[in-house]
Each structure stands twice: as structure tokens, then as C-alpha cells.
Amino acid sequence: MTRHFPHDWQSANVSRIPYPLYTDEDVYRRELEAIFYGPHWSYVGLSCEISGPGDYKETSIGERSVIMVRDPDGSINVVENHCAHRGVKFCQERFGTVKSFICPYHQWNYNLKGDLTGLPFRRGFKGQGGMPADFDTKQHGLTKLHVAEHNGVVFATFSADTPPLLDYIGPKILEWFERTFDGRELTLLGYSRQRIPGNWKLMQENIKDPYHPGLLHTWFVTFGLWRADQSSRMIMDEHGRHAAMVSAKNAGGGGEVTQNVSSFKADMALNDDRMLDIVPEEWWKGPTVVMTTIFPSLILQQQVNSVSTRQIQPRGPGKFDFVWTHFGFKDDTPEMTRRRLRQANLFGPAGFVSADDGEVIEFSQQGFEQDPANETYAELGGTDVADTEHMVTETLIRGMYGYYRKVMDL
Amino acid sequence: MIDPSVRFAIEQLYAAYTSALDNGRFDDWPDFFIEDGRYVLIPRENHDRGLPLATMSLESRGMMKDRVYGVINTLFHAPYYQRHILGPMRIEEDGDALLVEANYVVFRTKRNEMSEVFNTGRYIDRIVNTDDGLRFAEKLCVFDSEMIPNSIIYPI
């Protein structure tokens, strides 16, 4: 085994994670290659974001800018955003509608599949100059990614070795994916973007950590939305890389689980309770909260009536961009749309129960950077990796690091 | 032509508003609004495309009080100062209401750190006269800042 970072992963288990895994530049470069540009599907967007022919969206996989575009034939292409000629990142807008991609520098022209269709002075001018006689446009297209869409959610991968999307997600997690995305038409509500000064893995960990919501997110506890004793399930795919935290809120109030929680305050009420005007929807089939992590870049949120995708775009070992896409469903009533938008106050960069996630991730990163010889301790519920029927566990974090260790060969 | 006394009263309102926010008097914040006043903090991207999602969207003084409760009692965050700088106000009359548009920059200063541009954009506000003086019926903060530097805790 090669030493990829200045700290050997000595522990036999994956419940102790060395701090340099969050801070080291070499580790990070290897993650980009092995994970983001390797045999994994990364989220690029929702099909409803590019509904018409030529509609495109610019986004990132790892640090590489890519363009998701609706082909005239109705399919979705994903191409890398740099010209085959001199490397120009030709698309500088995030959304738009085009007939073709044209690089502004020398006007190389590509169709929406990424094939080079034309370039000026290919045959020179008055017999002088021009491209070599054997110039083959087929050899000079844009980098084309493999694309898979499932029920309105679009993924792409640079690697030809990535298994088919549904196999990649796996049957256990697909069940929860399809609970939200069952083929219904989606409607776009809007975006939130934040840059979080922490390692990208911390956001995956955050949504694989059912220990913290009832403690950090005082708001949840204060207003009865989350308690450690509510019925919960922690579910992983066979590799431990994806997970679903499934939970149903119960009646609330005091009792054993709130005794040691300093944040719990009985009898707190909102001045305007429209913020928590929760109306159960048939498709929930019971659970009020399902948070799904699809390794490496995607989090799917259903928190009562608020649904969103959250995309992780790493920007170096110490920071990542976090992009929220809130949506609804075509058959939502205006009241339901308003409800989803109101409950969106709980989530995002200013959210009552999300702003503090970004903050603690920043503090974690600060701790890692100051003491590289140390390691984290994730042994709530033991050191093993297994699904549970409760939330007093860090099993999902261990599951992810078990997979991570294999992929990274650490 | 807006009466200079009206302009002066509006400037006083904004000065009092930013003073309350920049000096941490958050309990005073809802009182700058009428009872069913609206406060919306929204990325320019969503605003320009007609997408309704806002970073913060509050529809009453009650919701604003709930936000203040969250800011003070439940939201865990690194402490910071914020400082608003406002540009000249464009004022129009609309019946009994006043429409005001003004550019703003908010600087953030965290402990042991340099001051940084935190959020910049424009206010698009609707102001009405009440028995207690001028109050916001609607305050729309449309921000250019493409990336929120981690989080926004306090109102803008």
C-alpha cells in the first residue's frame, strides 16, 4: 500500500478517521480521480430544469465543469465544458438555450452531443495554412459523459466502468429514491447556493448522522419535529456508500429522551404556526423524514412537505459548494406549493435546521487543520456496519468509510 | 418630486433599521414592519427567473419574531458583526404607499478575521404610513452574491 498522506490509517476499523483525510491535498486529488472522475454516478440535475430542445444547465462533477443539455431528439447529453482546441471553458452562463456550442476564441462549433461540426480556416486561406490534411473532426469533439436519468433525476459519469445507474443505487436505496421520484412530473421552485469552508465528506457524514439533529438543531427539538425516540431506520446499500435515514415524528413532549437535552423547552409555540403547517402526503407512506445520501455528490431531502436535492461540488480539500434545488410536483395545489416554500425556511443557508450544519462543518474543519496527528471517533452504536432500527448510532458514517477505504486503497 | 420631508423620514427609517440590525437589537426588527408585512431575502438568480424559492421568506411580524427567537436561542453559529452600507434611495409614490429601491452592501466581521463583503444586492421595498410612523409592508432583499459564505443567520 502506498502512503498517500502523511498519516497512516492505523485503526483496524473505520470508526476512527484520521484528520488529514479532510485536509491533505494529495488525498483530495486522489478522491477526485478515484471517486468523482471514477466509476461513480454524480448528480447533474433534474430533467425539468432543461425541458425544451437546446435548454442547458452548467454544473460541476468534482471540480470539472459540465453542461447538461436537452438534445433536439429529446434525450439528455452531458459534455465537459472546455473546448477541444485550446481548452477554453466556453460556457460561462449557468442556464440558457442554444442550437450549438460555439467556443468564442476561434469559433469551433459543436453540436449538442459534443461532436465537432465545424471550425474556421480548416483548409487554410488561399492555399496557405489550415489544419493538417489528416485532421479528423471525430477526434476533436468535447469530452462526452455517460448519462442516466431515472424518473426525472439526471446523473452522469466520466468512467465507462460505472455500473448501470439502478445497479449503482442498489435495490435497498432505490426503494427510497422512488418514493419521491416515482415518475411524477417535477416542478422547479428555485436554488440556494452556499460555499462551506469544510471538506466535502463532512456533508455526507452530516446526512448519515442521526445523532446530531436532536442536539445541534435546537429548533427541531423545541418545536417537536425531532426526538431521539421517534421510530427510525438506518438503511445502507450493499457497499455501505449510500444510505437512507428514515424517521417518523411522534407526538412530542417531554420524557426520558428530552431530560438531558439542554435545548428542549416544553410549551414553546410559534407566534405564526403557518411555518409548521404540515400536511401529510399519500406518497410518504408513513415516514415524515427521509434523508437519502447517494455517494458521492447527492443528498435527497424529504423533510415533511419540503423536498429538495442538495449537490456537493468539492472546491479543494477545505471547501465545497453546496447547491440546493427545491422542487414540487406537477399536481401540487397552490396551497401545497406555498406550504413547501414556507417550510423551505427551515432548510438552506439560512435555514432554522440547516444553517447550523454548515457552521459546525466549518468548525470541524478548523479542528482537523490544527491537529493533523489526531483522528475522529465515530463509535456510537459500536464499531460495526449494519442497518439499525434506531437512530442512536453512527453506523452509516462507518459504512461510508468502509467503502471509501476500498476505493481509495488506504 | 418627492417632498424632502418624506425623503428625510424614509432615510430615518432605513437608518434606524440598519442600526437595529448592525447593533444586535434583533428584538426591534419585527417592529419595522406592519402586522402582516413580508420579509423576503432571495437570490437574484431566482428573482430574475421568476422562481419563488427564497433564502428567507416571512409573511408576518409573528414569523419575524419566530426568526428572532431562532437567531438568539436555537441557531448555532460562529459569532459575527454585520455592517450595512446603503446607497441613495430611489423613491416613487404608489397611491398611499411609497416604493423604495436602494443598493446595499453588508460586511461581515468574524472573530479574529478581516472584514469581508458578506452579501450585496438591493432592497425593493413598499412602505406605508401608520399611526406609529413609516413601516415596511414588504421588504424584498434581492442579493447578487452567487455564493453565500456558509450561512446567513441575521436578517439583512
From TrEMBL, chain A:
It holds the Pfam family Ring_hydroxyl_A. Its EC number is 1.14.13.172. Residues 41-156 form the Rieske domain. One of its GO terms (molecular function) is salicylate 5-hydroxylase (NADH) activity. CDD domains: RHO_alpha_C_ahdA1c-like. It comes from the Bacteria. Its cofactor is Fe cation. Keywords: 2Fe-2S, Iron, Iron-sulfur, Metal-binding, Oxidoreductase. This is Salicylate 5-hydroxylase large subunit. It comes from Sphingomonas vulcanisoli.
UniProtKB/TrEMBL annotation, chain B:
It comes from the Bacteria. Gene3D superfamilies: 3.10.450.50. Its EC number is 1.14.13.172. Residues 7-138 form the SnoaL-like domain. It is an enzyme of class 1 (oxidoreductase). It holds the Pfam family SnoaL_4. Belongs to the bacterial ring-hydroxylating dioxygenase beta subunit family. This is Salicylate 5-hydroxylase small subunit. It comes from Sphingomonas vulcanisoli.
